[in-house]
Design a protein that fits this description.
Mean pLDDT: 93
Shape: elongated
Helix content: 40-55%
Largest sheet: none
Structural class: mainly alpha
Radius of gyration: 17 Å
Order of helices and strands: HHH
Number of helices: 3
Distance between the termini: 32 Å
Number of strands: 0
Strand content: under 5%
């Protein structure tokens, strides 16, 4: 969303009544991969890691 809209509390409240929590399964898969990587003990730059989804 446009930053002008996202930072305008009145505009947001006029368009949306509330929010729902959903699970992004791509994000979940990436989070699980990062957790497994962190547990491996080979993390040298924890804030510089990225993930790549591997096709089947």
């Amino acid at each position: 969303m446009d930053i002008e809209f996202c930072h305008d509390q009145v505009a947001v409240a006029s368009v949306f009544k509330d929010a729902a929590v959903d699970t992004c399964y791509v994000g979940r898969m990436r989070e699980l991969a990062m957790n497994e990587f962190a547990q491996s003990g080979t993390v040298e730059a924890p804030n510089s890691q990225t993930t790549r989804l591997n096709p089947r």
